[in-house]
Amino acid sequence: MNYTAPENNALSPSIQIEPKILYFGMPVILVTTLNEDGTTNISPLSSSWALGHNLVLGMGFGGKCIENVQRTPQLVINVPDASLWRQVEKLAPLTGKHPVPDYKAQSGFRYEPDKFAAAGLTPVPSATISPARIAECPLQIECEVRNVTIPEYAPFFAIVETQAISIHAHPGIMAGGNHVDPSKWNPLIYNFRHYFGLSSALGHTYRAEV
User: Fold this and answer.
1) Which residue from 33, 66, 74, 130 has the highest number of Cβ atoms inside 10 Å of its Cβ?
2) Is 56's pLDDT higher than 80?
3) What tens digit of pLDDT does each residue of 180-200 get?
4) What is the pTM of this model?
């Protein structure tokens, strides 16, 4: 990594701040879900964590992704590497919701029924579930949704609990057998609305303010 910590970082006093967002360095994932017409939707997400084969996702409520999950409780967690940041950013202003909700339209979103074509990505059939996987993503995790919770204190998002059913990886990131080689795996990181790999900055999202 080329990151250099500020001088005297350990001794610098902290200040109280009120940032708009708390994406303080989260892996980007592309979640594919099944539309009502049998096609596959792609939704970029940056809120997730994993414990064993259980993965928990944060989804904006009212979007196409959570709508699809509530109807068909299956999804694929496609994990892009840093080289795919431009494709991810092409997806950022797109929504599968039609008509586009007012709050999304005000943020610059536009309706796109074929997000694979719009982002230059390739769908491939999943082994165990209905939504397609994304061929270009080095990691593809087919999941079944086990629980969806909408917090009373924050009804604008959903907490989606999933369980991995089938996991796929590109041979180029493997260390043999079932092990991903960390020296070959360079995930895309969403860092306060800027894209990073395990290196210097690559670019930023259209919503970045700095």
Assistant:
1) 33
2) yes
3) 999 999 999 999 999 999 977
4) 0.92
CA distance linking residue 172 with residue 169, whole number of Å: 8
Task: Quickly tell me which residue has 């609990």 as its tokens.
Answer: 161
Q: How far apart are CA 95 and CA 115, in angstroms?
A: 9
Look at residue 122 and give its three-state secondary structure. Answer: coil
What's the token pair of residue 48?
């997730």
Strand-pair partners of 30: 44, 78
Strand order in the sheet with 157-169: 40-45, 29-34, 74-79, 139-149, 157-169, 54-60, 48-51
Mean pLDDT along residues 40-59: 97
Adjacent-strand bridge partners of 195: 190, 203
Residue type, position 91, single letter = L
Query: If we measure between CA atoms, which residue out of 167, 147, 206, 161 comes closest to residue 78?
Result: 167
Write the single-letter amino acid at 59. M
Q: Report d(CA 55, CA 101) in Å as an integer.
A: 28
pLDDT at 210: 65
Q: Which residue has the tokens 């994990």?
A: 79
Residue 164's pLDDT is 98
Contact (Cβ atoms closer than 8 angstroms) between residue 47 and residue 207: no
Whether residue 46 contacts residue 88, with contact meaning beta carbons closer than 8 Å, is answered with no
